[in-house]
Amino acid sequence: MTRSLRGTDPETVRAALDTGDPLPGTAGFAGELDGELVRDTLGRVPLFVEADRDPTDAWAFDPAELDDPVQFPAGAVAGPDDSTPERRWTLPDPDPIADRERALDELDAAIRSAADEFRTDTTSVAVAFSGGVDSALVAELLDAPLYVVGFPDSHDIAAARSAADAMDRDLTVVELDPTDLERAVPAVARATGRTNAMDIQIALPLYLVGERAAADGFDALAVGQGADELFGGYEKVVRLDHRVAAETTRGAVREQIRSLSDQLPRDVRAIEATGLEPVAPVLHDDVVSAALWLPDELLADEETRKRGLRAVAADYLPTEIAERDKKAVQYGSLVARELDRLARQAGYKRRMDDHVTRYVESLLDG
């Protein structure tokens, strides 16, 4: 297994360790540094260790390299003699900026700066484009080719086509059929180390669009991941229902941000399995910091979610795109529907517990 530090240079991480700075201006990092394992506070770079082993003795970026992999905790550090990783960085909890325009200006500057950094560092990038505000803003700032994936009658393909037309951009449409899912499921499960239905449904579109972009000669795939978590894109952060523990929208948004450390390794590994580098400008430290400072009025309410991000996006995108809502990728692409259909055709009926997961596991066994 490759022993290294990924995501940034050693000096930056050493300085972050010395100062305790959880957002030191990176796009995430993980790996080995000076004999210790480290991972950034949001867990943007996947890092796995062997269960019940000294973390520094058995670790990998790819879970398939380990016999019994578990995630190394985000924001943690572990040395050779540490049986339990120590939490070293935690998400800041600043008082929001009272001045709405100042908060938006800082968010705008952070997003532009992050996009500029990725554009400079990445030679050939395509954008996973769904037609929603998140991927559209990334596409506009990176000025990169657009790729959408889905079944022919899917919402995402229709939305991406209309958005590309409104933005006057070309679009590559990757139309799927059921055999694409059957072929890709084992690769995605092995790359992510997961077989549960929801994770596979979310990772499949990323893998399949990345596969096409890689075949077309691109080196990286840009995504809008993180926007819903950072800016209040989920209905549950407004409704404050059983899915969240917080009693305020601001608290619920922070819950979603903390959930990124579990979600991102799935998405990153799915893209990396195609040979592409994942690029997520919205998850750069500078953007995360600006998002944490947003006042409550720029988060979400019953009428509009991701208010701050949409306000910034309105300066770059047609109004219809900046204000557009979209479906989750597994539903918008119809991947969830078609995977469920394949499972039932293979004999895994809905009356069975977790029938799609059982189907995924059967493909791995096969």
What's the number of extended β-strand segments?
A: 13
Order of helices and strands: EHEEEEEEEHEHEHEHHEHHHHEHHHHHH
Strand order of the largest sheet: 1-2-3-7-8
**What is the straight-line distance between the termini?**
26 Å
Low-confidence runs of at least 5 consecutive residues:
none
At the fold tier of CATH, the topology name of the largest domain is: Rossmann fold
The CATH class of the largest domain is identified as Alpha Beta
Domain Asparagine synthetase: 120-257
Pfam families: Asn_synthase
GO cellular component, one term: cytosol
GO molecular function: asparagine synthase (glutamine-hydrolyzing) activity; ATP binding
Task: Provide a brief overview of the structure.
With 366 residues, the protein is an alpha/beta fold.
Could you outline the blueprint of secondary structure elements for this entry?
Elements: E1 5-6, H1 10-19, E2 30-33, E3 36-39, E4 48-50, E5 59-60, E6 69-71, E7 76-78, E8 86-87, H2 100-121, E9 125-128, H3 133-142, E10 146-150, H4 155-167, E11 171-175, H5 178-192, H6 197-215, E12 220-222, H7 227-231, H8 236-239, H9 249-258, H10 260-272, E13 277-279, H11 285-292, H12 307-313, H13 319-322, H14 329-332, H15 335-345, H16 355-365
Helix pairs in contact: 2-11, 2-12, 5-6, 5-16, 6-10, 15-16
Keywords: ATP-binding, Nucleotide-binding
Region (Disordered): 1-31, 77-96
Organism: Natrialba aegyptia DSM 13077
Q: Any overview of this molecule?
A:
The protein folds into two domains: 83 residues, no CATH class; 236 residues, HUPs (Rossmann fold). The protein is globular. 45% of the residues lie in helices and 12% in strands. Helix 2 packs across helix 12. Strands 1-2-3-7-8 form a five-stranded antiparallel beta sheet, with helices on one face. It has a five-stranded parallel beta sheet with strand order 11-10-9-12-13, sandwiched between helices. A three-stranded antiparallel beta sheet has the order 5-4-6, with no helix packed on it. With 366 residues, the protein is of the alpha/beta class. The two termini are 26 Å apart. The longest helix has 22 residues. It contains 16 helices and 13 strands.
